[in-house]
Specification:
By secondary structure, the chain is mainly alpha-helical. The protein contains two helices and no strands.
Length: 66
């Protein structure tokens, strides 16, 4: 009886495991594309990128300080 319950639970979990694996692959592909796009933008606009980083740091420091 317990063995049947374990088999049923394993059979129920298998599709979820497959779905999670597919989602992980999709997220990895999305991450690689975002990193590639960001790297290309930074290479094309280095001064703008530094300005945005400085501004973001200033805003974050103000939020954390208060």
């Amino acid at each position: 009886m317990a063995h049947q319950a374990v088999d049923k639970a394993a059979a129920s979990a298998a599709p979820a495991v497959d779905w999670i694996g597919e989602q992980g692959e999709s997220l990895n592909a999305t991450q690689k594309k975002l990193v590639s796009d960001a790297s290309a933008y930074i290479a094309a606009n280095p001064l703008m990128s530094v300005g945005v980083a400085v501004l973001a740091g200033f805003v974050i420091s103000r939020v954390i300080r208060n």
